[in-house]
Specification:
heterodimer, A: 167 residues, alpha+beta, Metal Transport, Frataxin, Chain A, two-stranded antiparallel ribbon, B: 178 residues
Chain lengths: 167, 178
């Protein structure tokens, strides 16, 4: 959530950026671990991104390829500031792009009137199955499915963006 | 005029565009590529250039979607406000009614998008004011894309197609309930 007063947001930006980088590094550590027994190579690099409130900063990114050198997917940080979440990662391959978001407190929601009492509001989550804070793959469909990031979700995303099937 | 949600068809078109590009990319290495790529721009390109063109298009299509979905959203909200303002036609004295409504109707076309969002925040969206904050972020990103992605002036947030759609779609659905 961005503060309505922009001057206030600039004051929080450095702290938010550090939290984001810590979370990205934790996930990238997990990804390296999940892929260590798979027939792929993972290379970590640094790149620079620029955001309005933080200015430029260096972030890690991952390139995943087959052992024969065929590029499968790049996982690039999309930034600290994103809609409906506390951080974004883009997974890009030759066949498309998917998104991983850091979601807290059940994630985005809307308040809707209860069916039995129009004066009562109920909080309806936008995406299903968000139980804990963490990184989630939000499918690029209208099914509103969120997958907590684990090895299975990662392999599925890589297949989705690269057409590469893990055996 | 009965208002309906114009956004799902925009998403459907976006999904179709992405799927078509994926199919085109597969066709480049297909055994029957001569037939599949016949009379398309890809026939004249070597496979490496054709693949690069498609990959660049896949990236571009997401930003174009944000432009497209915002324009449909903005048109819907202006239509919605003009329709709700029709009660001005019952204003007394009667001589004022139609000119007043006509003036309002025409003025709505010139309201700035941020003004419209602020109006919704204090009226139809009081139970979900956070959606207006999110819509303003989509608008900021839309403006950034529409003005050539100025590298010296960044939008407040990174916006991706799916999340822009979800935000604006919720606002439209809420308005249609009222």
């Amino acid at each position: 959530m961005i503060a309505e007063n922009e001057a206030e947001e600039y004051q929080h930006a450095e702290q938010k950026k550090q939290v984001y980088l810590t979370r990205v590094n934790q996930l990238f550590g997990n990804i390296q671990d999940w892929l260590k027994d798979e027939p792929v190579a993972v290379k970590q690099q640094n790149l620079e991104i620029i955001e309005k409130f933080t200015g430029p900063y260096t972030v890690p990114s991952l390139s995943i390829s087959t052992q024969a050198g065929q590029e499968l997917a790049d996982i690039n940080p999309g930034g600290t500031y994103t809609l409906m979440a506390e951080g974004l990662l883009d997974v890009e391959g030759g066949f498309g792009k998917e998104h991983i978001m850091y979601i807290v407190e059940g994630g985005p929601y809307i308040n809707k009137p209860a069916t039995d009492d129009k004066d009562k509001l109920i909080r309806q989550p936008t995406y299903e199955d968000i139980d804990d804070d963490g990184w989630y793959w939000i499918e690029e469909t209208l099914l509103d499915k969120a997958h907590f990031m684990n090895k299975n979700a990662l392999l599925e995303i890589i297949t989705q963006v690269s057409d590469y099937e893990f055996v | 005029m009965n208002l309906s949600n114009p956004l799902p068809i925009v998403w459907e078109n976006h999904e179709a565009s992405r799927a078509a590009l994926v199919i085109a990319k597969r066709a480049i290495t297909h055994n029957d590529k001569e037939t599949l790529l016949s009379h398309t721009t890809f026939m004249a390109k070597n496979p490496t250039d054709a693949k690069r063109t498609i990959e660049n298009s896949l990236k571009e299509v997401e930003d174009l979607f944000v432009l497209s979905v915002w324009s449909k959203f903005e048109r819907f909200v202006r239509d919605y406000l003009q329709q709700k303002g029709a009660t001005l036609k019952t204003t007394k004295p009667a001589a004022l009614a139609n000119p007043l409504y006509e003036y309002f109707y025409n003025e709505v076309e010139y309201w700035k998008p941020n003004q419209i969002l602020n109006l919704l925040k204090i009226s139809s969206l009081t139970t979900n004011p956070h959606l207006i904050g999110q819509a303003k972020q989509v608008l900021g990103y839309r403006d950034w894309v529409a003005h050539g992605k100025n590298p010296n002036k960044h939008p407040s947030s990174s916006i991706r197609a799916k999340f822009a759609y979800d935000t604006l779609n919720y606002i439209v659905e809420t308005l249609l309930l009222n």
